[in-house]
Request: fold
Amino acid sequence: MPRYLVISTEIITMNAKIRALEKSDIGKVLSGWKAAFPFDDIPRERFENATLNDPNYVADGHLVAVHGKRVVGFVSAVARRGVLGQDGKGTPAEKEYGYIKGLFVLRNYSEPIILKQALLKHALTFIKSEGKSLVKVGHYTGSFLNPGIDVRYTNERQFYRRHGFDEVDYEEDVSINLTNFTPSSYHIAVQQRVAELRVQIQPYQDDFLAEMKRFVKRLQYISWFPSGWEKDFPYQGTHLVAIKDGEIIGWAMYNPVFYEGFFGPIAVLQEFRRNGIGTALLLESMIMMKMEGMSTITAGWADAPFYLKSGWATSRRYAIFKKRLSKN
Ligand SMILES: CC(C)(COP(=O)(O)OP(=O)(O)OC[C@H]1O[C@@H](n2cnc3c(N)ncnc32)[C@H](O)[C@@H]1OP(=O)(O)O)[C@@H](O)C(=O)NCCC(=O)NCCS
Reply:
């Protein structure tokens, strides 16, 4: 008797059935995710944005394994069509890549490894069917769940290595506790340096839009500013800009959420970097978030050395995995 049967797009293991993710599954998927990944606490809205609401979402890449009424496993895989993809954020360097955003099977399920292998196989088949030759776990610049696999999940890392993936890179989240935060002597020196350059840090205003467009054109960061970015920009968070001689040369965004704030992205035009402008934007965001009652701030998938200089510390580390897909 075969271990599992393949019937069109459905794989049926001895106990569980694999089918497309439905909106009504999400509560159970999130509970399963939390049980499988104890360091993760993914809010429902973020999960929906990274799965069903991702413009690159395709049903064949988003599967749940169900056993009776239980959701016992889940996989999310995505592949941009063409270079840009539906989110307009793809670059030529990413053209050959598909991504696994998340994969779990409940440990207390009777056949976790077989089911996990089946879900992985399905994700890889989907990515290949979209014409991609490489797959990464992590580094997806669209709506992602995590930048990679938290390095503390040693079993997960082992699982991907056993299935032909190489651990190719690492990314970090950084955080700071604001409870006792006051600007350091480093910050005060930066503020003086930035003032001497006649650079001002200001909240973004609607009438800066034409200047913001010029900044975006010079910056060329398609993953943060895809075509049509202006539409959602005012609703995405609080924006600060660095202005010199009437021109925007730097920008940062932050989001206060209950007591924990989120910072980023941040960018300074290449020719103005290493002058303290990024730090001035970061500092102003920290001051504003502290005033708004935030006790901690996190920046995900961050350029850590820049933040460490301002008193932040690494809070999570992620491993990125890569695999070349076989041609046949
Ligand atoms: C990250 C970024 C915003 C920093 O802006 P900046 O104006 O150059 O930052 P600062 O001049 O305030 O740098 C402060 C310190 O951070 C560190 N730092 C800044 N950029 C760094 C980099 N790329 N690598 C290592 N350290 C860096 C340095 O120690 C620097 O101090 P120093 O110049 O005295 O050595 C800018 O490099 C940028 O726009 N990068 C591209 C977009 C990006 O990657 N954003 C970060 C996403 S989290």
The helical segments are 26-36, 44-50, 112-129, 154-162, 185-196, 209-219, 277-291, 304-308. The chain has eight helices and 15 strands. The chain has two domains: 5-171+319-324, 180-294.
